[in-house]
Amino acid sequence: MQVLCIKMAELLRKHPTLWLPYLAADLLAICLWRLRGVAERGIFRWFTTGHSVLGGEVPLPPHDSATLAKASIAYAPIAIVAIIAVVSLFVAALVATAVIVDSIERDQRPDSRMILEALLTRWRRIVLFSLRFLVTVGIFIGGTAGLSYYLLSIAHRQGLINSFWFLAAGMLLGVGCTGWLVLPAAVRLLRGVSALVSVKTRIQGTILAVLAAEAGAVLGFFVPSLETSLLLTSHGENNVLSIFNSIVANAPDALLFIALALLTADLSRNLDDGKNSKLRELLPVLMPMHFEKGGTQPE
Questions:
Q1: Between 196 and 4, whose confidence is greater?
Q2: Which residues contact 121 (CB under 8 A, 6 or more apart)?
Q3: How many domains does the chain have?
Q4: Domain-embedded: residue 221
């Protein structure tokens, strides 16, 4: 793990372009999420506002549960598609980061055409991996939250469910279990490796995911306080600051992408070396005449 972190720091120092996939994904995700907010406000305004025959608008009662239910049903598909699209953007950034890391390790200059080709050829797998990730996270969050609330209600400590340490422990458990389960699928997405992932690799990948999630949570806790301490009068300044804070708060994701790219590259390299060594062991059996005459292994 220490060697992996040192190698990641060295790559970042020599190749700052490794930040670009994360930055592009984060900026696109911010734009997409704001479009979702515009659609949400438009839908709820349409359902909670009556339209008279004269062309005017009449506000409906604010606590009309039936109207709010209809608006929520109409908005739900947009929210689901937006969430899947945002997660797919970050998964695509992971794939792009792996392509750049491979180019650097082959002493080649990262090519934008190669990155786009990799994304286009794997877009279905990117979406499927995003769905799998969301389903796994949803199951663990829902199951953990429900079980925790039940246990706390038995102990008459329901207030602890909103405490910082309880949320941190829940995130540690949820991210750890999710990382352990989806890491083999991530390896197949990045490397196309169908072999079983070793326990050591899964442990390393899970630790990296947990560290990135906890670091992001800490940054997400402190960054909004810095935002509120600044006195900004312009709406544009507020937008720029919120975008900058989002990039800073999610920066551990970029480090996670690079670390996973290096980890899966080492795994793929070890599998290739293992295949080559097995093939060399079979060569004397497959080519006995050559070995009897020359006595050396063919290259």
A1: 4
A2: none
A3: 1
A4: yes
